[in-house]
Amino acid sequence: MKANKNKRLTPLFMAVAMVAGILIGTFYANHFTGNRLNIINSSSNKLNNLLHVVEDQYVDTVDINKLVENAMPEILAELDPHSVYIPAKNVQTATDDLRGSFSGVGIEFTIRHDTIRVQNVIADGPAEAAGVLAGDKIVTIDGKTFVGKEVTTEEAMHRLKGEEGTKVTLGLKRYGMDKLKTVTVTRGEIPQKSINATYMMDKHTGYIKIKNFGENTYAELLIALATLSQETFDNLIIDLRGNTGGYLASAVQIANEFLPKDRLIVYTQGRKSPRQDYRSDGRGSYQQIPLVVLIDEVSASASEILAGAIQDNDRGTVIGRRSYGKGLVQQPIAFKDGSMVRLTVARYYSPSGRCIQKPYTSGDDRDYEEDLITRYQHGEFFTQDSIKHEGPAFHTRIGRTVYGGGGITPDFFVAEDTLGYTSYLKEASMRGLILQFAYDYTDENRLKMKPYATLETLLGYLKKQNLVEAFARYGEKNGLKRRNLMIKKSNELLQRFIYGRIIYNMLDDEAFIRYFNEEDPTIRKALEVMDKQAAFPKRPADEKPQTKKE
């Protein structure tokens, strides 16, 4: 009987509880936030309502705009490693690297000892016309001192860039001159080049280095190919090492130049983004030339699209080390205040169906950011057997096996060269002492080296200067303990790094790249493949042709 009585009273208890809940909820809603809290549990309005609650009720005054600015990156970080928020003040800087040009003064600079040092002056640019020289130190901008802790790369770029036609006055401290030199520079359009080396490696092989994929990269490639054609090149090496990517369209255009008609280059697909195929149109002028593509662990995004298209279509040979594994497609979304979100909306897939993106855990970027360190520690940079293929196997057009799980694994692996590395060299590099020494040496000897205007003549001069010993003394003065046995073991590498930086300071990117390519094992392997006429992959004898489904 007691159980039945309780059973009859249960609906009454529930009704009383519901009424009480409604009354309590109404009291708190009216007392604290009017009619806001009655929808606070709605997922689409919860954040907005939280901000209203904080603004209305928090114990101290809160800058809501600052709160939102700080929260945006954290929210996007919960999605994936590449969805990002860009504040309005940083949008131009974030997009300038891939634009065909930007408006500025036309210098390359570095910051040392809290001072802007002019590294190079762009030929025919505004700064050159105004009389700025490589080696100058910029100590005032528009009459105001600009040295000390406020001198950051971001702030320097902010002050030096500006609308075309506007003027900026620079106070220059020049080596050998006690008096400050003042020049006025009229800002102009500065071309942004994404191909920084084009030359013949031997009588038959042309070389092109692409540092990123920007608005004008394809046009630059056509010019580079035309330049090589004048020297009748028969083979081509495209170097994508260190290239972190850029625009999809540029990578597709370049791949199209080398592929026969109707070959899949890449496709994208996402939850709200239907599959979109990018195919070759058969109009490329270099469909038959033997081709080698070089990649490394930094090659990412558009670099991987190009390398994957060449590899999966068996159009050329990929050499180097496994690429980064960045295969997420970001769509820029602008806000009214000028800020921007780059939101991941799809994934890239190579022609064989491989997802280029390496695995990640949403909301946990630490392992993702440390992936290259992990790969290094596992020995992946040194032995091919250490490469972990976490994804399934796929097949190219002629049946060669390629692997998913992130990045592009090369056809020929080349280990990182560690011969001659010592703890002395590591400390010198990590502390930036080699760069500092090379800059100071260039600054002090610029007039002596000026007559040596080619790589060969400048190198001949440098080899007579005993620069490793000069660096050892410089390092000791700057807290790097002298270790004679290690210096001897690392002598060749120290010499190479010092020469390379001075060559860069005195000449240009191409001379710097040419110098390092002379002893580069990846370049040697590429030339070996060309010499053996093995750039076009062959079907493995034990594998049958695969039926393609695109």
Strand residue percentage: 15-25%
Rg computed from alpha carbons, rounded to a whole number of angstroms: 29 Å
Indicate the low-confidence ranges by residue numbers.
5-41, 546-550
The N- and C-terminal alpha carbons lie at a distance of 73 Å
Class from secondary-structure proportions:
alpha+beta
Helix segment count?
19
* Helicity, as a percent range: 25-40%
Number of strand segments? 21
Integer average pLDDT = 87
Largest beta-sheet characterization: 6 strands, antiparallel
| Morphology call | globular
Describe this structure in words.
With 550 residues, the chain is of the alpha+beta class. The model is unreliable at 5-41 and 546-550 (pLDDT under 50). Helix content is 38%, strand content 19%. A hairpin with a 4-residue loop joins strand 10 and strand 11.
Q: Gist?
A:
38% of the residues lie in helices and 19% in strands. It has 550 residues and is α+β, with helices and mostly antiparallel strands.
Keywords, please?
19 helices, disordered C terminus, six-stranded antiparallel beta sheet, six-stranded mixed beta sheet, 550 residues, alpha+beta, single chain
Helix-strand layout with pairing:
Blueprint: H1 2-33, H2 46-57, H3 64-77, E1 84-86, H4 88-96, E2 101-104, E3 107-112, E4 115-121, H5 126-130, E5 137-141, E6 144-145, H6 153-160, E7 167-173, E8 181-186, E9 188-191, E10 195-200, E11 205-210, H7 217-229, E12 235-239, H8 248-256, E13 264-269, E14 276-279, E15 291-295, H9 302-312, E16 317-320, E17 328-334, E18 340-349, H10 366-369, H11 371-377, E19 393-395, E20 401-403, E21 412-413, H12 423-430, H13 433-449, H14 455-462, H15 467-477, H16 484-489, H17 491-506, H18 509-517, H19 521-531
Parallel strand pairs: 11-12, 12-15, 15-16, 16-21
Antiparallel strand pairs: 1-18, 2-9, 3-4, 4-5, 5-6, 5-7, 7-8, 10-11, 13-14, 13-18, 17-18, 19-20
Helix pairs in contact: 8-9, 13-17, 17-18
